[in-house]
Amino acid sequence: MKVILTGATGMVGEGVLFECLENPAVEEVLLIGRKHYSLTHPKLKELLLKDFSEINQHTEQLKQYDGCFFCAGISSIGENEESFTKKTYDFVVPFATTLSQINPAMVFTYVSGSRTDSSEQGKVMWARVKGRTENALMKLPFKGQYNFRPAIMKPTKGQVSVKLIYKILAPVLAPFLPSQTLTLTQVGKAMINAVSKGYSKSILEVSDIAQLAK
Question: Cα 119 vs. chain centroid, distance in angstroms?
Fold first, then answer.
């Protein structure tokens, strides 16, 4: 398969990328982003854009891909609802909408988060915004659309893009919360299997991601 990946300069995206480059099921990875990712690999291609809305200028190229792993995103820390919506919903949904028009035969996977609020009515701001984003994505005419809700994630050896808080907290919390812990290798494998095999649910909690990774 050939896949598109966003967010390679972040922890989740880089971990998923490492799995894609190692996994024999993946023939090619196209990184779409604003910043260059400094890795050379025979499978790797890169499309740098000033704005993600520019993908409509690359229609023929994007028709070649079987899946998109949307791993780009920001923390809600320090954000109000308006700014977080702009950097989450308004960032992801227009990109995915355009991509579904270019290539509806694609499988689109979005990294959301544990405790995302599908009702869009809860008290937690980030959970409402993520829920609204998931709900909008599930309405798009992709071959498949999956929303991953990981909790604690352990980075892959060799990753550069790992924030200090994850380096400290993940090893401490993981032994006490094994049912809420995934490796980024598992997350990557589950995304690849979502393209090749599909899954019975559109929203995947930690246990679903672990199951799909097998």
Answer: 21
